[in-house]
User: Fold these one by one.
Assistant:
Number 1:
Amino acid sequence: MTHKWIIITFCVFLLLSGCAAPAQISAGPGNSIALIVAPSDATPTVTPFLPIPPTPTYIPTAFPTLLPTANPETPSGEIGPTELLDPTDEHINILLLGSDQRVGEGGFRTDTIILLSVNSSQKTASMVSFPRDLYVYIPGWTYQRINTAMFHGDFEILAQTIEYNFGVKPEYYVMINFWAFEEVIDSLDGIDVQVARTLTDQRSGYGQYTVPAGQVYMDGTTALWYARSRSSTNDFDRTRRQQEVTQAIIERLLSMNAIERADELYDIYIENVSTNLTWPDIVPMLPLAVQLSDTSGIQHYFIGPAEVINWITPGGGQVLLPRQDAIIAVLRQALGSP
């Protein structure tokens, strides 16, 4: 029982689960590399995504001052790997992934990608959220959205993609699908979410549905809809809502006598959570997890509008071109690298 409870608590602490509607991804051209080049008359799109209004809460720790250029450099030519930002062993880098995979289906996307970096010597942690439409070079493949990297191989492909483009090497991952997301919340008898901003959007079976600002009780279905919804907002706003829901899950676990339900919760996790963390990997991290159980002490960073450029691919896809220098500046702050 004790081991099960420790695993559950550790996984919930790690997970930031938000998913998009399921979709199939067509396989690419084997292992060939085809660099995407914009046509000569291609220009940055003005508003392919809805803007986010100012928010009084959930302010990212880092606000880079760099601004997007009018004519972005499009992915083309030969590129080389980015130099590692933290080549030491001080940081434990774990990817927290939310998957849209359904049971029995093959192709899936990781529509939530968060880098959790724990500094083992300073006993600090930071979380960096990557937008799913970030258009990056996938080693051995081509330029594609970052959320398709695992589809082309496994965790190693996604880890190599982040290392190659941004100079940070993740060693571990924890991935959950959205079915488990609902089930976990319902097993906790719902959660109380601190909603920073009123959300009104279409919800199946309800029509226009509004979640008011303030503390709102949510069951699993409502919390999943709240974390996934983006018809009236965008991915950047959805990232904030995902963090609100995760905070509520952790607070619910800490406020209830959840140890009595360890068997039930453990069965849910064992069926729905995928990870390369083993028990010998977790044991040395437990003291850090205990010290960081107060989530207000974790530094939050986001790859937001200032770090990307909206662009439409030659095939018509709306993507986000990374402003590599700006993203690396955020990562340096998150990792405490000079």
Note: Residues 189 and 219 are 7 Å apart (CA to CA).
Number 2:
Amino acid sequence: MKDKNEDNVVYVAGLHWILFFWPVALAIVAIALGLKFSPLKEVSLFLVLFALAWTAVTWVTFHFSSLTIKKKQVILRTGILVRKTTDIPMTKIETIDISQSVLGSIFRYGALVITGTGGTRHYINYLTRPLTCRRYIEQLMHEL
């Protein structure tokens, strides 16, 4: 029987709100074009509808993707139609890399790449607070 303390969740991180920047920006520009230039109303309407669909898809991705750090494993979950869940035992993690742009450093988001034994790479983009995630994972790896 498993000890309940072995699988305690240490930290859960989701995706960053910056995912919504481009769909919302497109909607704002499309609305402004439609209001300013009446011959472009049809194009503007199409762009607004496209931006709304893009925002909906982004929201689903935002809501259903996460990184869960437990005492003995890391769990990556992404997607909804094509759901991908990856469980990585702490003992199988070799390196944890973070890729951040300047905006990512300012707004605290980035890509986290976990390399497992054998060179297998698992990544999650637009993760909120990737440095905190790496710190927790490294701390738990050293405790084992």
Note: The chain is about 40% helix and 30% strand.
